[in-house]
Amino acid sequence: MKVKIGEAVLELVEGDITQQDTEAIVNAANEQLIPGGGVDGAIHRAGGPSIAEEARKYGRCPTGSAVITGAGNLKAKYVIHAVGPRYRDGKHGEPELLASAYRSALNICLEKGIDSVAFPSLSTGAYGYPLPEAARIALKTIISFLKEHGRPRLVRMVLFGKEAYQAYEEALKELAAREGLS
Ligand code: ADP
Predict the structure, then answer these.
(1) Which of these is catalytic: 16, 40, 89, 115?
(2) Distance between CA atoms of residues 159 and 165, nearest Å
(3) Is 16 annotated as catalytic?
(4) Per the database record, which ranges form the Macro domain (predicted)?
(5) Residue among 80, 160, 165 whose CB has most ligand 1 atoms within 8 A, to mutate
(6) Could you tell me if the CB of 137 is within 6 A of ligand 1?
(7) Burial class for 134, CB neighbours closer than 10 Å (0-12, 13-18, 19+)
């Protein structure tokens, strides 16, 4: 599924983030920027050791923020490491922190002139964020960013498996209807 927001496109696909040919891909990183499991492990395995070496220079990356490195052997040119929150009960600032992780990654795209970026579903694996809520927050944040800035021209959400894809599709249908997007 795809919607247009001004000149920009927001797209949902089911797939593997490591295979994307967008200029940048986003990693669901941890604050220590140390390679972990899930999507993080897959990106470091596919991209090679240069990504972790470069990330190490930043030291720590607080929850809700993001840093950028090269992408080693991946098709993309850059990896943006964004740190989403661990979900506790939704009352510990998780929605704001999740939105902030998406916004921080998108701001890096603006600063670097990156015009296409692929995101995984931040925080919905090991960090336990319920998918329907995380989907709504992710998509609302991306839509409002694109409305304000018109860039990057392509934002692709790469959902791993049917369940994640369907949760995002449902959330996007609802938001698109509400905001008059097609
Ligand atoms: P977090 O710690 O932020 O929860 P995870 O990597 O555990 O990060 O999970 C985030 C999401 O990424 C999950 O929905 C998971 O299914 C998904 N995921 C795992 N591997 C990949 C992959 N290769 N491409 C895209 N998404 C993936």
Answers:
(1) 40
(2) 5
(3) no
(4) 1-176
(5) 160
(6) no
(7) buried
pLDDT for 16:
98
Q: What is the CATH number of the domain that holds 106?
A: 3.40.220.10
Q: Which positions ≥6 away from 143 have C-beta within 8 Å?
A: 5, 10, 175, 179, 181
**Residue 87 falls in which region: left (phi positive, over 0), alpha (psi -120 to 50) or beta:** beta
Give the model confidence (pLDDT) of 113-170 as tens digits: 999 999 999 999 999 999 999 999 999 999 999 999 999 999 999 999 999 999 999 9
| pLDDT tens digits along 25-63 | 999 999 999 999 999 999 999 999 999 999 999 999 999
The residue range of the domain holding 111 is 2-179
DSSP 85: P
The structural domain count of the chain equals 1
**How many residues are there in the chain?**
182
SS3 127: coil
